[in-house]
Amino acid sequence: MEKVYQYIEGNAEEYINWLIESCNQPSVSAQDRGMVKMKELVKSFLKKIDVEIEEIETAGYPIIYGELDTGKEKTLTFYNHYDVQPEDPIDQWVSNPFETSIRDGKIFARGVADNKGNLIARICAIHAYKEVYGELPVNIKFIFEGEEEVGSPHLEFFANNFPEKLKTDGIIWEGGSRGVEDKRPHVGLGVKGICYLELVCKGAKTDLHSSEAAIIENPAWRLIWALNTLKDQEENILIEGFYDDIIPLTERDIGFIQSMHFDEERTKDLYGIKDFLNNVTGDKLKEVLTAQPTCTICGIDSGYTGEGSKTVLPSIAKVKLDFRLVPNQSPENIVQLLRKHLDRNSFEDIEIKQSHGMLPFNTNPHDPFVDVILDSIDEVYEEEPIILRNLAGSSPMYKLLNNTNIPAVQIGVANTQSSFHAPNENIFVDDYIQGIKATVAVIKNLGQLQLK
After folding, report:
1. How many angstroms separate the CA atoms of 184 and 382, rounded?
2. pTM (two decimals)
3. Strand partners, 68
4. Which residue, 56, 67, 104, 228, has fewest beta-carbon neighbours within 10 Å?
5. Where are the domains of the chain?
6. What is the architecture of the domain spanning 194-358?
7. Cα 432 to the chain's mean position, in Å?
8. For position 260, what pLDDT does the model report?
9. What is the CATH code for 2-189+363-448?
10. pLDDT at position 364
């Protein structure tokens, strides 16, 4: 494989330029900004490697499906998304989020880590392999969607209507990360689910002078009182039945957690905090991060928050919440339990508006494809990988892979300080190049795998 690795290094500048071109194109699905141009740009990159492309229309943004049919026995699929998060708050960016910059060995741009760096790296790997060896040892499929950042509402449509396109021996899913200090690559075998919703509390039909607060209920206070019933100060979620369906960790799960390296002091310094919640440390901290559910206030809106003062009694109060879910929890059930909880506590008037949700997903760690990935990681990286039972975040794995036995594993070009969804999103140049090499190794090793 040295020839192809050398080719990747020799053509690193071209591959970096491909990434820069993709990141310079805005593709904010939540705002319908630049999506058509980005879709066409992705197709142009796939054409560079002679992919047979099919644009699958949905009720939202189209899914770009591509095939390289080599006639070989095994098939490798790449799932990625071509949409990105909004760049706000723009004033906290050191450079323009849609004018890619490289400084101190890092590439900075919105979407470079999530998920354009991985999307382009997969294409670069195919390009390098074909340039050096002529033909691929496996069939390749691409599933690139444009709605991951808004909850992948039409990915299940693809799975239900195009099952033949989904058939594969394994999926490299979106992407993982690599430690900044220890440089250990992270291999993810699953993700938490998510239930994202909004609570709305209404008072008078219009905002009023704050003097009316003596006799008129304030929906902001009422919403705060309702929120206060959801969690205690030890982070226990108080919704009745919330924990009932959770599957206990196995010994292997616990082993994965214990094998993780988590630099607590570095993380606290990076985030500017003194301690983690409940002063938890060690293996327990890692378990909480990767294997326990959460309830998070993402934002609150009510009344006047502008410059100066405005004595107002607001007519409406809203809060956005997300619940991160672990295996066997579902967004639908969480909404039902939340509704019962609010009613039981006399908050029947508070409306629940469910935005989107995704179920958790875990790959069988004994699947042969997992060994293919781990063997490939060993070939490319000097550092021992960290195997994660599931990532702390969420991804629409379940929507695509429900009712299948297809293994999906996350490896990628990001780092643990990539600032996903935040200002100054970044990846290391070296990690990008290493990620291309790792994908090449997976292609080779899957081609050599003797399926049972």
Report:
1. 8
2. 0.83
3. 140
4. 104
5. 2-189+363-448, 194-358
6. 2-Layer Sandwich (3.30)
7. 18
8. 82
9. 3.40.630.10
10. 87
